[in-house]
Amino acid sequence: MMKENQKKFEEVKQLNLPIGQYAITGSGPMGVRNLKKIGDIDIIIIFKLWKSLSEKYGIIDQKSVRKIVIVGTSIEIFYEHSFYNLPKETEEPSVSERIAQSEIIEGLPFESLKHVLYYKQRMGREKDLDDIKIIQDWQKEQNLK
Predict the structure, then answer these.
(1) 117, HSE (Cβ side, Cα atoms, 13 Å)
(2) Which of 3, 68, 97, 133 could make a disulfide contact with 77, Cβ separation 3.0–4.6 Å?
(3) CB of 6 within 8 A of CB of 105?
(4) Three-state SS string across the chain, please?
(5) pLDDT of 28-83, one tens digit each?
(6) Which pLDDT band, with edges at 50, 70 and 90, does 89 fall under?
(7) Class at the top of the CATH hierarchy for domain 3-112
(8) Nearest CA to 30 among 97, 113, 129, 105?
């Protein structure tokens, strides 16, 4: 695993979050597979954990997104209603489903690449387009093995 990515994953381990209540999302599932050098760690959590962490760290509301930023780390935390201006699609998995279907790698829960791909396709930002290609190429390679 890339050293820079590993350092960021160690920051997550230091939080001692309860397995089953969170998952690393965004580019993290790509970073743990050495598909990308990640800039930060995005974590999705269940509401009960959100309440507890928001009391400890506070909430930032920025560009229609509610998140918890752990100062001194590269970690940003989100919950079900963090992206409150983005309408929910009928086929969109809930945060609880995404966490339940996460994969434990190196002791940490990572959101499935299937879900990461869904959100990157939905957002469709320029940075997402590169990631979509990387994930699709990796999936093809895995199917050939």
Answers:
(1) 11
(2) 68
(3) no
(4) CCHHHHHHHHHHHHHCCCCCCEEEECCHHHHCCCCCCCCCEEEEECHHHHHHHHHHHCCEEECCEEEEEECCCCEEEECCCCCCCCCCCCCCCCHHHHHHCCEEECCEEECCHHHHHHHHHHHCCHHHHHHHHHHHHHHHHHHHC
(5) 999 999 999 999 999 999 999 999 999 999 999 998 899 999 999 999 999 998 88
(6) confident
(7) alpha beta
(8) 113
How much of the chain exceeds pLDDT 70, in percent? Answer: 99
Q: Lowest mean pLDDT: which of 82-86, 90-94, 116-120, 130-134?
A: 82-86
pLDDT confidence of residue 145: 64
As given in the structure block, the two tokens for residue 137 are 């190429």
Dihedral angle at the C-alpha atoms of 3, 40, 25, 6, nearest 10 degrees? 10
Largest CA distance in the chain: 47
Could you state, in order of their start, the residue ranges of all structural domains in the chain?
3-112
One-letter amino acid of 10: E
Residue reference for tokens 């970690």 = 75
